[in-house]
Request: fold
Amino acid sequence: MRDVFDAIQRTAIRIKDAIDVKDIGYSQLENSSGETQLQLDIQCDMIIEEEFSRVTSINTIASEEKEHEEVFRKDAKYFIAYDPLDGSSLVDVNLSVGSIFGIYENNFGAENMVAACYVVYGPRVEMVFAENKTKLYLLQAGEFEFVKEIRLNEKGKINAPGGTQQNWAPYHKEMVDSFFAEGYRLRYSGGMVPDLHQILLKGGGLFSYPGTSDKPEGKLRRLFEVFPFAFIYEKSGGGAVDGTKDLMTLGCAHIHDTAICFFGSNYEIARVKEVYARNS
Ligand code: F6P
Ligand code: MN
Reply:
């Protein structure tokens, strides 16, 4: 695992540099979230592929940017699924973005996950790595330094509701509103990594991405986004559900499958389960 951890650190430093130097096309703004942005996504994907291809313990990779998985070494242990630049459309408005990694042993699937990690590229670069515990690292002078262990409180104050509100089910809207009625504050940037990072570091709250009338199975991808964060939230003392079931008990038929998902501290997750049990 040490070699994978080291490779992720190298990719993070290279991706940060790519974000910093990339010409995002200020002179051709009408194109900045289309073609130009796509190139940065692909550049980040290539950086990760290149670094991982040298790690002898990695068997297969799957990327949100690739249609199919890619096998490096048939006898090696780890299967890694990653989202190279999550929230990439936020780069051109200079909001935080991230990379997400799910580390699986012997095959992809929640039951095979042994570690998960994400990197936030914000004003500072931070990395969160969870194995048995969740640990926070900060990039300082070219190296990631351990900062602290992360533990969620039982209850938080942040509400981060994803998806198009117009397409929410009425009971979902009532649930979201019930948290606001209790004094929760809205904190939502549209980047999964910074939005979930904020809830983790501020001690708790709820991030939701429900099934909607236009996306009944949600938007976020199981292998690259949902399982890694579910693992991290569980290891941090919180919960992660699809409404009724723990996300880490779900299967994954295809590498790009999505899932409805809720991540939070225990108080908020209990509310989600209660509301969804009544309505499904
Ligand atoms: O990767 C998908 C993503 O960009 C996530 O980072 C983010 O949480 C989500 O989409 C935001 O979706 P929406 O704008 O529908 O709330
Ligand atoms: Mn993504």
